[in-house]
Amino acid sequence: MTTRRLFCGGAAFAVLAVCVVVGAWVRGTSPAELVEICRAAVCAKTGRATVAERVAAIAEKRPELKSVAGSAGGKLRILVFKNERIVELESPGWKEPRKYPMTGFSGKLGPKLKEGDCQIPEGVYGIEYLNPNSLFHLSLKVSYPNADDKARAKADGRTDLGGDIMIHGGSATVGCIPVGDDAVEEIFYIASAVGIENISVVIAPYDMRNGRKPELERSPLKWYPGLCREIETALGKSDVNGGHLFFTTNERPGYCSVPSIERNNP
């Protein structure tokens, strides 16, 4: 849990307690995660900022990020390794990736299948929009479910796949990717500079770049080995200058029209 102040007033305590009890009962989420979720809801900022305003504030706070973003070469790849609990940013202009530990985790290794399963998705995605008014400081919306997710669900007879998968601040998660407030500021700033149409996201059960680990791929899903091969191929595209992992608007997997960045989703 973050060290930010937990309560914002006397009435907040009652709201917090109700949320923790009800939420834990409905979703099986740990009390610590529900406390963080409810704290964010109770303490959320009432003002609504634009992406540009948030970026300007980050630049004033962390001026060194201007050169980091400027050297990115106009392309960005976000790699999420669930088993290692690591998020990496990779760009053709950088000699080394930038790494951020995940501050929370939910579910287990394996893909997301439905709403409420608390799973972090696995696959190759894009970023749909940046949210400057997140309940969890800042967030980037991952384009789950993509076309492949929907096709597999149709073949399985599954519906209600869930959504609103975010890379965000704080530490609570029921399927999102939390990295803490400082890290999400950096990712948000760089993503804004690069442009969401130039970002790809690979979410993997583990880091496959040094070889496959069958013990981490066990699943009753017949299509899961194929998904792991797709992820391995995506991770292997280290030629970030020309590899297919950097997509134009029409090529990005799971692409959909970008909704308003003023949406106040987590």
Task: Describe the overall structure.
This protein is α+β, with helices and mostly antiparallel strands. The protein has two domains: 1-43, no CATH class; 51-236, L,D-transpeptidase catalytic domain-like (Beta Barrel). 32% of the residues lie in helices and 15% in strands. The chain is built from seven helices and eight strands, in the order ααααβββββαββαβα. The protein has helices at 10-27, 31-43, 51-61, 65-70, 147-156, 181-194, 224-236, and strands spanning 76-81, 86-90, 98-101, 123-131, 139-142, 166-168, 177-178, 199-204. A hairpin with a 4-residue loop joins β1 (76-81) and β2. It is globular. Residues 1-13, 42-46 and 238-264 have low confidence and may be disordered.
Provide the fold topology:
Blueprint: H1 10-27, H2 31-43, H3 51-61, H4 65-70, E1 76-81, E2 86-90, E3 98-101, E4 123-131, E5 139-142, H5 147-156, E6 166-168, E7 177-178, H6 181-194, E8 199-204, H7 224-236
Parallel strand pairs: 1-8, 6-7
Antiparallel strand pairs: 1-2, 2-3, 4-5, 4-8, 5-6
Helix pairs in contact: 1-2, 3-6
Which short descriptors sum up this protein?
266 residues; alpha+beta; L,D-transpeptidase catalytic domain-like; 2 domains; 8-stranded mixed β-sheet; 7 helices; 8 strands; disordered C terminus
The order of strands across the largest sheet is 3-2-1-8-4-5-6-7
Please name the CATH architecture of the largest domain: Beta Barrel
Shape: globular
Structural class label = alpha+beta
**CATH H-level superfamily of the largest domain:** L,D-transpeptidase catalytic domain-like
How many structural domains does the protein architecture include? Answer: 2
The overall pLDDT average reads: 81
Largest sheet: 8 strands, mixed
- CATH fold-level name of the largest domain: L,D-transpeptidase catalytic domain-like
